[in-house]
Specification:
9 helices; alpha/beta; seven-stranded mixed β-sheet; 31% helix; TIM Barrel; two-stranded antiparallel sheet
Length: 238
């Protein structure tokens, strides 16, 4: 079955995410766009996922638990997990691996955790957009140990991608799926390796307008489930 997806969205918990990206607004926009599968991947934390999961279930949308992890090399890894508890467990380890630099909301934006009614119920102190001390190899091992799939994010971009940071996608990572941004697809970005990768394309939305303007693609899966998606991304076949 063909499933319209967007697997890289940020909530207002990410300091670079707009305040309008509350759990209800994100799920509401996904409904308006007829998305059947979404992943909200905040920077280096999974704390917004419980509220999002509740709302997604009520809306009939499949939420894929996710985190966008920044490696020590400053490469972004879109990390997708089998369930929210697994994402939360890894998220705490990733947050602990951030440097002890406090967020400055007046400069970087707020880092507010919200409940399912969009009420603030917490705030994270460390600046989430910093690089962790985890190497890319450690991130891949950590995500996989939790049953998740690590995907090199927006590999076509000139910053915060595996290719911009390392010059290549290290073969020892055994990545089978990569993310290319919509802009990269439009300009015909070609991966430098001979290896064939399964490619996903997401909005990487930090604002509702970006979500709404993204022309979502569809993915062929046996069923609309997190397990089917992860198996597809793990094997690199759609």
């Amino acid at each position: 079955m063909l499933i319209p997806y967007d697997l890289h969205i940020h909530s207002c918990l990410s300091p670079c995410g707009e305040e309008e990206m509350t759990p209800n607004n994100v799920i509401g926009m996904a409904q308006l766009l007829d998305l059947q599968m979404i992943a909200v991947a905040d920077h280096n934390t999974a704390r917004q996922l419980p509220a999002l999961q509740q709302l997604a279930e009520e809306a009939g949308i499949l939420l894929v638990p996710a985190i966008e992890i920044t490696t020590a090399e400053e490469a972004h890894i879109l990390s997708l997990f089998p369930d929210v508890p697994a994402a939360l467990e890894v998220g705490e380890l990733v947050y602990d691996a951030l440097p002890p630099v406090r967020n400055r909301p007046d400069i970087f934006g707020s880092q507010v955790i919200m409940d399912a009614q969009d009420n603030p119920c917490g705030e994270l102190e460390k600046l989430l957009i910093n690089a962790t001390r985890l190497s890319i190899e450690e991130v891949f091992r950590l995500v996989r140990s939790a049953g998740g799939v690590p995907v090199p994010a927006h590999v076509d971009k000139s910053a915060y991608s595996v290719i911009s940071s390392l010059g290549m996608i290290p073969p020892e990572l055994e990545a089978r799926t990569v993310e290319i941004s919509p802009q990269g697809l439009k300009r015909g970005f070609v991966l430098p390796e001979r290896e064939n990768y399964f490619v996903i394309t997401d909005s990487d939305a930090h604002a509702l307008e970006t979500m709404s303007m993204h022309a979502a693609l569809s993915i062929e899966l046996p069923e609309c489930s997190v397990g089917s998606l992860l198996e597809c991304l793990r094997r690199g076949v759609g």
